[in-house]
Amino acid sequence: MSEERVPLSQADGAQTPQEPQKVTAETYKCPSCGNFLKFDPATQKLKCAYCGTERDIAAKPAQELVYTTLSEADYEAWGGTKAYKCPSCGAVSVLEEYETADVCPFCGAPNIIERDELPGLKPNAVLPFKVPEDEAKGFWRKWLKKKWLAPGKLKKEARMQKMRGVYIPVWTFDSHVDATYEARLGETYTVIVGSGKNRRTETRVRWFHVSGVINQDYDDIQVEASKHIDGKALGKLGGFDTVNALAYDDDFMSGYSAERYSDGLDDCWDTAQGIIIDDLRARVKARYPRADRVDYINISPVYSGTTYKYVCAPLWISSYRYRKKDYGCVVNGRTGRAYGKAPVSPVKATLLGLAIAAVVAGIAYLFVTYLL
């Protein structure tokens, strides 16, 4: 008798993949003037830039998907899209099939190459843009004004290129953890030893062993999977409010591109577990406030109820030109927080160095004059 094969998504309790909905040019044609409807961050609707016609988007909260070691193997094709690869920086970006790409959204290089559909999971969640492009430029200008080591003429002479709206891939994980721990912690103390000229104070450590159990729920641990925007940059941008993610809908992508993830689900779950272990170690340490030394803290975790989301998170990406050189700039599409690189004025840097040297010299003079 033949064995009935159950799809992985059903066997593991995850949502059953649906047939990808066909997205065509007609889907986004304006019924009034025939131009394309694009997602508008200001109204959170599809909007025609020419006649102002709007169309509502049936938004609903994103659902968590059950994670197993087989989740990534049971992928659903990202239908209705085209993939492009940049020969310059290697970025793989995705656009709706009726749109075309002339430059890379990350480095601005032309002549990017259209690719066949790439294997991998389709996003199940999206954080729509809340900051329109013109406001993003304003946030960039405010950020630029705070760069006081930058040349004085930078604010006037810098010319920003067109900002490109890009969704980058972010994995989020929820999990309950039951963990046992063993640790060797220490408490420093001082004693006075010797006598006469040999009398002195010594610092010693009183070591003690501890063990116990710690239980903790984790919600929306974020692990970025972008090849071009690293964790440090995302930290500067303030991260994303992924708890407010909506169910993935092609409508939110209209007018924007999306980066294909470079780090897969399983690898990013490994990264998330590292984040959890670090947090558990900190929680164990906090249980023993008198300990100011750590020899080791060993954690043995058991994970249960682990779920994930593959979220498309919004960024405005651009570069600006100053004296024939390009400098990058990124703006969080949810909050407007900006991060990037700015040129440094040699004159201002030299004056800062001289000022620091003068302060150090002054402190040294006071120390020699009054304390020795």
Give an overview of the whole structure.
This protein has 372 residues and is an alpha+beta fold. It is 20% helix and 35% strand. The chain is built from 6 helices and 16 strands. Strands 4, 5, 6, 7, 8, 9, 10, 11, 12, 13, 14, 15 and 16 form a 13-stranded mixed β-sheet that branches. A 3-stranded antiparallel β-sheet has the order 1-2-3, with no helix packed on it. A hairpin with a 5-residue loop joins strand 2 and strand 3. The radius of gyration is 27 Å and the shape is flat. Mean pLDDT is 80; it is low at 1-23.
Keywords:
372 residues, 16 strands, 20% helix, flat, disordered N terminus
Question: Mind sketching the topology for me?
Answer:
Layout: H1 8-11, E1 37-40, E2 45-48, E3 54-55, E4 65-66, E5 81-85, E6 92-96, E7 113-115, E8 125-126, H2 133-145, H3 154-157, E9 159-160, E10 164-193, E11 200-224, H4 231-236, E12 246-247, E13 257-259, H5 265-286, E14 293-322, E15 325-332, E16 338-340, H6 346-371
Parallel strand pairs: 8-14, 10-13
Antiparallel strand pairs: 1-2, 2-3, 4-14, 5-6, 5-7, 6-13, 8-12, 9-14, 10-11, 10-14, 14-15, 15-16
Mean pLDDT: 80
- Rg computed from alpha carbons, rounded to a whole number of angstroms: 27 Å
Q: What is the 3D form?
A: flat
> Gap between N and C termini, in Å?
96 Å
Weakly predicted, low-confidence segments: 1-23
Secondary-structure content class: alpha+beta
- N-to-C SSE string, H for helix and E for strand: HEEEEEEEEHHEEEHEEHEEEH
* Number of E strands: 16
Task: Tell me what portion of residues adopts beta-strand conformation.
Answer: 25-35%
The count of helical stretches stands at 6
Helix content: 10-25%
The largest sheet is: 13 strands, mixed
